[in-house]
Amino acid sequence: MSDAQDHKQKMQQQQAEQRAKVSELRDPEKGLVLVHTGNGKGKSSSAFGVVIRALGWKQKVGVVQFIKGKWITGERQFFDRLGEVTWHTMGEGFTWDTQDRDRDIAAAEAAFAKARDMMASGDYDLVVMDEINIALRYDYLKVEDVITGLEGRAKGTTAVLTGRDAKPELCDYADLVTEMTEVKHPFHSGIKAQRGVDF
Amino acid sequence: MSDAQDHKQKMQQQQAEQRAKVSELRDPEKGLVLVHTGNGKGKSSSAFGVVIRALGWKQKVGVVQFIKGKWITGERQFFDRLGEVTWHTMGEGFTWDTQDRDRDIAAAEAAFAKARDMMASGDYDLVVMDEINIALRYDYLKVEDVITGLEGRAKGTTAVLTGRDAKPELCDYADLVTEMTEVKHPFHSGIKAQRGVDF
């Protein structure tokens, strides 16, 4: 078989597989639980990429940011300006700005209550809980409460939970877990964090 | 030391580290080369998350999509509607729609020429080459040509290259390589690809 024939055959096979996949794409019934974890970059940014996709399909989106309260980020400025996303930021900002564990816990619980209500309402196609894994890691939230909240979400609502060190119980519950692994990182080679890329 | 004191001390240390990091955040000089690869989800969506961050900081962004030509995606619809991103999609669509290797190569080369011109122009803070690794994997593009194009980019231009099976030469050249690893995938447990999440 010539290279060209071989190529054509491979492409035909991929086309058939792709078509089979596309033909399955019309099921909006079930909402998924997605976890983005790992020590690499891309956990939050890929969640915001998913937000963009959802908005492109005219879906309704809510975002609750845990931890990153007071820091000005590009994503926050963008979505504020866009005005299409219900956005809630945990009131106390970075936990290391408060240095008060009880306040941190109260702030995390209030933020999760907001996310839980959005998930249960049936009004949202997508609810992002950005950096919630950090709140879980510090035991500001109980993993069983988060799972109960996810379990109570409306049928068509997809939830995305981000942050390193995702709890094993949460990963067990999730439909999809993606680990972002740092293979090579510019901070390690003396390059500074940059606006637009890192925050 | 009490738990509360211990917590406070940890938080103070993190606060100091965070401040040191934030104080370094004002260097817009150097553009980075970022590669998102691996067999997991989030390679393209995190690139679009980076686009959002850049737009939030009023940066200028260009996107060239390789391979995913004709497929209607949420990101494409969103950015078309937004009208703030210079967008170019490789003309021939999915390579397995053409089944003609020469046309695929010509389309990939034309798409990369577009990306190279944007990178060299100095007009863009960020240029995303989405799924370019697929074009490299099929030898539609030469990795040395892509590296030459990256090398010729303007000083402040960051480039993001996505797609599985990134070439080792490209990873060596890049400042940052993130591997997205599929830990648990819904297609494997019988859940269909979904609008807004997967495309």
From TrEMBL, chains A, B:
One of its GO terms (cellular component) is cytoplasm. Keywords: ATP-binding, Cobalamin biosynthesis, Cytoplasm, Nucleotide-binding, Porphyrin biosynthesis, Transferase. It is found in: Cytoplasm. One of its GO terms (biological process) is cobalamin biosynthetic process. Residues 1-24 are annotated as: Disordered. Its EC number is 2.5.1.17. It holds the Pfam family CobA_CobO_BtuR. SUPFAM superfamilies: P-loop containing nucleoside triphosphate hydrolases. Required for both de novo synthesis of the corrin ring for the assimilation of exogenous corrinoids. Participates in the adenosylation of a variety of incomplete and complete corrinoids. This is Corrinoid adenosyltransferase. It comes from Sulfitobacter delicatus.
